[in-house]
Automatic annotation (TrEMBL):
InterPro entries, A to Z: Leu-bd (IPR028081), Peripla_BP_I (IPR028082)
KW Cytoplasm (keyword) present: no
Name recorded for this polypeptide: Branched-chain amino acid ABC transporter substrate-binding protein
Protein family (similarity comment): Belongs to the leucine-binding protein family.
Organism: Kitasatospora acidiphila
Any matching Pfam family: Peripla_BP_6
Leucine-binding protein domain ranges (all copies): 40-398
Keyword tags: Signal
Region forming the signal peptide: 1-21
């Protein structure tokens, strides 16, 4: 695919890091490499680095890389050098589970940032929990990951004490999107489509329920498969439904083609989706067909934050691939939460890592309380971020432009 050459390089680098950073600590079950001067601690990354969703996945990888580079340069944790070990899950749950097992098996890994996809997260959570290895996703938004399958019935139960996220949930994002669609956007009839995946189907369902409650009418629903390219039958259904809005639950890989084919067929209604669509790649592929389309994404626009200017400058200067503006800032902050927890653990243990370092890092992350580059970082009793900010973006003149930022008021 389009990032294949980068993937080869990433594999080579990952192998090199494994050689230098996976030493044991004289019988301790977890901890950093002490074979050189000081300690070496690895932060794992799991995301799609090739194929489906790779633009946003690469943004996660390099958001973490910049956080690690900053920590090493600033000597954030005296005596500790941080490294990144990035694994490609190709947006596949089975590969994600294999990656989780590999990261757990590397004793130098004291925290993991990722994954991108909620469906992949489901396959990884138990693996990390069993090993007391902290996992912070900058992008998972399905509410059940933290609050359990009965969250919608207000029966919320934390699933895994090692799982956290810096992105707010679809319970807020889907409702926020519906509120905007039926309010400022003035849409009355929506056709709702999803990709059958955990994230996409969940988000579409929440939007559909909220849009109806807000007075809108859902005039049709359908599903697509990830990897589909020809949406002519779907386009026909949408055109005949009389919808003035198409809502899509899923990633940009399919939606960018759906909107392009829908506009080419003469139906100029906007396509609206969630943060899985918020990527410049969507606009590049859809071309003029993307004009007027809408997405919701977590947080405040990173380009508008003074706290993120240095991060953005470093990302651009390094020439890193991928889209930093989707989850790059949240990835940086997730890595920073792990780095701070490692620092706290070392400080409380006379400058060394204890045998239960992974467990101590989990506790440190749970107590996180700092201002990150993308907003305040702290977690509630479920592991969810306390930052509930959301933004609606619209394609204007070939660029995503923020049109509304706030929190859901329901």
């Amino acid at each position: 695919m389009r990032h294949r050459s980068l993937l080869v390089l990433s594999i080579a680098l990952t192998g090199a890091l494994t050689v230098t950073a996976c030493g044991s600590r004289g019988g301790s079950k977890s901890g950093g490499d002490t074979s050189g001067n000081g300690l070496t601690v690895t932060i794992g990354v799991d995301a799609p680095l090739s194929g489906q969703n790779s633009a946003t996945g690469l943004g996660i990888q390099y958001g973490v890389q910049i956080a690690v580079d900053d920590a090493n340069k600033n000597k954030t944790v005296p005596g500790v050098t941080f490294k990144v070990k990035a694994l490609d899950d190709q947006a596949q749950p089975t590969i994600g589970q294999q990656n989780a097992t590999a990261l757990v098996g590397d004793s130098s890994v004291l925290g993991v940032v990722g994954p991108l996809n909620s469906g992949v997260a489901q396959s990884m959570q138990q693996v990390f929990a069993t090993a007391n290895l902290v996992e912070i996703s900058p992008s998972n938004t399905n509410p059940a990951l933290t609050q359990g399958p009965n969250w919608a019935k207000n029966d919320k139960k934390r699933q895994f004490p090692t799982y956290f996220r810096t992105a707010t949930t679809d319970a807020l994002q889907g409702a926020f999107a519906a509120q905007y669609a039926s309010g400022p956007a003035g849409k009355k009839k929506a056709f709702v489509v999803d990709d059958k995946q955990t994230y996409g189907a969940g988000l579409a369902g929440i939007f559909q329920d909220s849009f109806t409650k807000d007075g809108g009418q859902v005039v049709g629903t359908d599903h697509v498969n990830t990897g589909d390219k020809d949406f002519s039958a779907l386009v026909t259904k949408i055109k005949s439904s009389g919808a003035d809005l198409l809502y899509y639950g899923g990633q940009y890989d399919e939606s960018e083609l759906i909107t392009k084919q829908l506009k080419a067929a003469g139906d100029n209604i906007p396509l609206m989706g969630g943060d899985g669509m918020y990527s410049q790649t969507y606009i590049t592929t859809a071309g003029t067909g993307a004009e007027g389309d809408l997405v919701t994404s977590v947080g405040v626009p990173v380009n508008s934050l003074d706290s993120a200017k240095d991060f953005i400058a470093k990302y651009k200067a390094a020439g890193y691939p991928g889209d930093y503006d989707t989850y790059g800032g949240y990835s940086y902050d997730a890595a920073t939460a792990i780095i701070k927890a490692v620092g706290q653990t070392v400080s409380q243990n006379s400058g060394k890592l204890p045998a239960d370092a992974r467990n101590q890092v989990v506790k440190g992350v749970q107590g996180a309380d700092f201002n990150g580059i993308a907003g305040h970082v702290s977690f509630d009793q479920y592991g969810d971020t306390t930052n509930k900010q959301l933004t609606v973006y619209q394609v204007k003149s070939g660029q995503w432009a923020a049109v509304k930022t706030g929190t859901y008021s329901g």
